[in-house]
Amino acid sequence: MKLVSPGAFAKNIVASVQEYSLLSGRAIGNLFTNPRYIADTFTQMDSIGVGSLPIVVLTGFFTGCVLALQAAVSLKEFGAINMTGKLVALSMVKELGPVLTGLMVSGRNASGMASELGSMKVTEQIDAMRALGTDPIRKLVTPRLVATVFMLFFLTIISDACGTGGGALVAVVLLRLNGPAFFHTAYMSLVGGDVVEGLVKPLFSGFIIATIGCYYGLRTTGGTQGVGKATTQAVVASSVLIILVDFLVTQLMIGIFGR
Amino acid sequence: MTLPTPDLQVAAQPSIEMPPGAAIVEFKDVSIGFEQNHVLKNISFRVERGETRIILGPAGGGKSTLLKLANGLLKPDSGEIWIFGKPLSGMSEREIFELRAHIGMVFQESALFDSLTVEDNVAYRLHEERVPEAEAHDRVVEALRFVELEKAITKFPPELSGGMRRRVSIARAIISKPDLILYDSPTGGLDPITSTTIIELVVKQRDVSNTTSLLITHRLQDAFTLATHRFSQSTGHMEPIPDGKLDPGTKFLVLNEGKIVFDGTTHELTHTQDPWLRAYLE
Ligand SMILES: Nc1ncnc2c1ncn2[C@@H]1O[C@H](COP(=O)(O)OP(=O)(O)OP(=O)(O)O)[C@@H](O)[C@H]1O
Ligand SMILES: [Mg+2]
């Protein structure tokens, strides 16, 4: 491993953050000017949204199941096993739905974007695109950004629903709890603030997945090996950022809604 | 063998506005380096309208870098690059994109879009310009006929051989009838027969459309074929220029270790006294 001086290291980080911010800024700025690549956006929505549906449904469902099982054990000690529905719904909607969906889609799509754009970069397809008069940020990054933010929002809702459904199934079948009561406590426990919190998070995660995936893809150097490296870095960086931003948004929401 | 269609024969009177007396490409004291190592040092040269400028030099001499600079894909560390009589340094990103509409580029490794068919690759620029589908298709067929690859229209680039990819890449570069074509090693890594086919295409494009071009090659043989042959409309093939004459528009630029070691005509190159050049040409 090559050692670098702390000064050079810090400079590198600042330069990367600056480059990343510029890329994100331009990707957003492109939304407001022509030309727009609507067809590319729909293609991406299909690949990100529809393509991620199976894993999102499965993770959401089994997370809900596991939550119900675990919650029941603890709640029983306090004689509050009827609160299982409340716990499952709150955890899913506020926290686990958004975060797990974000992580799943990050693993699937941030890596996909980084490797696709990375291969295009190392085979000079990005340069060719520029030589043909197309801005690669406009053509490649903006459609992915729009598609990811839009689709992740709905994927999160689906995940929340599957999770609550999975929890209910476990509660009724394994824990012998009352089904309608489960849904009633679940429904009553959710207030506006919880739902808003749960729905704001995927907007941030979607932004992170698309911009980080594209950023690492577009700065790929060093042939196929570089593509592999870019892919790994994109998944690591976007996953960590998703969890970090989740913490910040939660903090902010507690400040606003008081819970 | 089909004759070039009339549409491609329109003499290239640059459709872009240029100040009188301006060169198509002009480098003024251009230098560029990557991470402290200097790739091009104080490069200056002019390419006039209608000229075919052949760039020769050992591998790693900065030839591809020079071509990317001419297209604004890279920015020089110092010096000025003028394209069609306008300085690249004074242009916004948007203006450079507009300028590139007049420049065709063939990349060293073809750089076709893997996810698009040959048709969509060649039509890429037309689709960007929102040319109606029917017209775009006709022009793609015409361009592919020019490179004799009509059969491959529905294929994807990974299904093609290296030589076919190079030809598709040429078709993609010429479809918009550019005022300047940049060929980066169009014959690199190909067998002699395929190389000759590609050089014939370049000669055809030069003599039929009079397009100004910069062409990098590693094969001296290709360079001299370009200088000594012309395209015959009647036979549809290239033929040697009679009496051993040379094509007056074909000139040479030789780069070595980032410096220009030769800039002049074919005659001057073949009669050079420079020992390094003589050794290189052997
Ligand atoms: N993006 C880049 N980053 C770092 N170094 C680069 C980059 N592009 C080119 N170089 C370096 O610049 C030098 C010239 O490269 P260039 O591709 O222009 O050579 P070339 O003359 O086209 O060679 P060849 O004949 O093999 O194609 C090489 O030493 C190369 O390592
Ligand atoms: Mg090269």
Detailed description of the structure:
The complex is a heterodimer of chains A (259) and B (282). Chain A has 259 residues and is mostly helical. Chain A has one domain (36-257). Chain A is 85% helix and 0% strand. Chain A contains eight helices and no strands. Chain A has helices at residues 6-29, 38-77, 84-122, 125-131, 136-173, 179-189, 192-218, 223-257. The radius of gyration of chain A is 21 Å and the shape is elongated. Chain A starts with 5 loop residues before the first helix and ends with a helix. The mean pLDDT of chain A is 92. Chain B has a single domain (47-61, 92-281), classed as P-loop containing nucleotide triphosphate hydrolases (Rossmann fold, 3-Layer(aba) Sandwich). Chain B has a six-stranded mixed beta sheet with strand order 6-7-8-3-11-12, sandwiched between helices. Chain B has helices spanning 6-9, 63-70, 93-100, 118-122, 124-128, 133-146, 162-174, 192-209, 220-228, 266-270, 275-281; strands at residues 25-34, 37-47, 52-56, 78-83, 86-87, 103-106, 180-183, 212-216, 229-232, 237-240, 250-256, 259-265. The longest helix of chain B is centred in the last third of the chain and has 18 residues, at 192-209. With 282 residues, chain B is α/β, with parallel strands linked by helices. In chain B, helix 6 packs across helix 7 (162-174). Chain B is globular. Helices cover 34% and strands 24% of the residues of chain B. Classes of the chains: A mainly alpha (259), B alpha/beta (282). The A-B interface holds A 35, 119-120, 123-125, 127-135 and B 68, 71, 73, 93, 97-98, 100-101, 103, 105, 107-109, 111-114, 124-125, 128, 172. Bound molecules: adenosine-5'-triphosphate (ATP) and magnesium ion (MG). Magnesium ion is lined by residues 63-64, 108, 184-185 of chain B.
